[in-house]
Amino acid sequence: MSSETQALLQSWSPPLGITIALAIAAAIYIRGWLNLRAAFPKLVPTWQLAAFFGGLLATWVALGSPLGMLHHAVLSAHMVQHLLLMTVGAPLLLLGAPVLPFLDGLPPIIVNKLVSPILRRQSIRRLGHVLSHPVTCLVAPSVALIAWHLPPAFEFAMHSGWGHALQDASFFITGILLWWPVVQPWPSVPKCPRWFIPVYLFLATLPCDALSAFFTFYDRIVYSCYRTAPDFFGRSPLADQQFAGALMWVCVTFIYMAPAVAITIQILSPTPAKTGISALQEPDRPSANAPGMGIL
Questions:
Q1: What does pTM read for this prediction?
Q2: Would you list the domain boundaries of the chain?
């Protein structure tokens, strides 16, 4: 372990803001999940609980672990941070079906006096309709990805605390938007046919492929902030830049390809008609009087 790495680890301490916020989210979710589990045992299965906590963990590793400090020294760490936010944390959180557990986990007075009135506003519903449209979900992360990797914007985020926080927030939020049509968490309604999702995921890879190819094959250092960075992993700044591009290229390709292949197989597979026995195996559905159902 190099002296620079030792100094980094010794100076690291968990950021309280992110850690506390994620801990509160975990507590609310698990409280709601346990309540729903008691009333509707099959409504939110255990694998969704595991997915949500996996998403929280990936988000904390990206923002709260030493990785959050290392990104100032090596571009590959910066790339791992953004991959965790956009392609790991975001889809896992959505796979956790967080709406019902959060509604049931929050104190009733907050749900009835704050959350419910906000969700019932027509302007909020219109905004949600626009944000969840596949075009928005495809364009927003592409714009955020390209815009933040332009040298002036990237250098600004590297030298400004709030600028870097804004960059991380934009990657996380647009990552949620990107995966929304793919995961389609309750209570959202599909706005495009299922066969379009593999095409959607292919289109989503294009800006990532272009950016990663640029980093991989460009023969000069793009960002001046890395030219004098300390050597953490035995790679020169240019070699680290090329490694970051290759890492992004491979990870995005495989992560986006996996659900595209799964959905394609699902579409092409025969779907036998439900029998009386299969109908009895359907998971329980909450009634209109279940916690949170009257809000949405």
A1: 0.83
A2: 13-108+135-269
